Amino acid sequence: MSLLGLQDGDTATYTDIAEYIRMYSISPINDLHELWRRIAFGVMISNLDDHLRNHGFLYAGNNQWRLSPAYDLNPMPRYKKAREFTTWISEEGPDADLELAYSAAPYFALKPDAAKSIVADVALAVKSWQEIALRLGMSEADMEIYETAISVKV
Asked: How many CB atoms lie within 10 A of CB 91?
């Protein structure tokens, strides 16, 4: 948020964040691809509370930055909130939708095949969430609730 010169309550899009990555990142292509991967992951798990405070950067010296590790990722069951991102993917609208993500992929230095490959990788990681949840002791009732949030349809 600070890197973008914004304050609490201000809004920006993922494509706005991408512009700042291009200007300030020590590794812009890697950070752009990682940010787009997070969009795909957010769509698949309905991480809809993706406000600007949840997008951080780490100082790398010499007025350059790196995208911080991802944090505060929370699946949002569908009955609680419409499938809309707080931080829109682009000016096209708030929908947490892979088609919108694909249309914005060029802003993140991604060609269509690379974007599809990232989505496939993310889907592979997400599809086993129920096995992991059971192993960690999540109840079946809670799993039913979160089933409405997590979708790996690509």
From this structure: 9
CA distances from 13 to 38, 61, 87, 128, 148 (A): 13, 26, 5, 30, 25
CA angle 141/142/144 to nearest 5° reads 65
DSSP3 helix / strand / coil % (the chain, rounded to 5): 45, 10, 45
pLDDT in tens, 116-136: 999 999 999 999 999 999 999
- Collapsing DSSP to helix, strand or coil, 93 comes out as strand
Task: Provide the residue ranges of all domains of the chain, joining segments of one domain with +.
Answer: 14-147
- Give the C-alpha separation, 35 to 67, whole Å: 8
Q: How far is CA 99 from CA 46, 48, 80, 104, 115, in A?
A: 15, 16, 23, 9, 11
Q: Kindly report the pTM of this predicted structure.
A: 0.91
Residue 52 has pLDDT above 90, yes or no: no
Q: Which token pair is 24?
A: 């300030």
The closest alpha carbon to 85, from 68, 71, 73, belongs to: 73
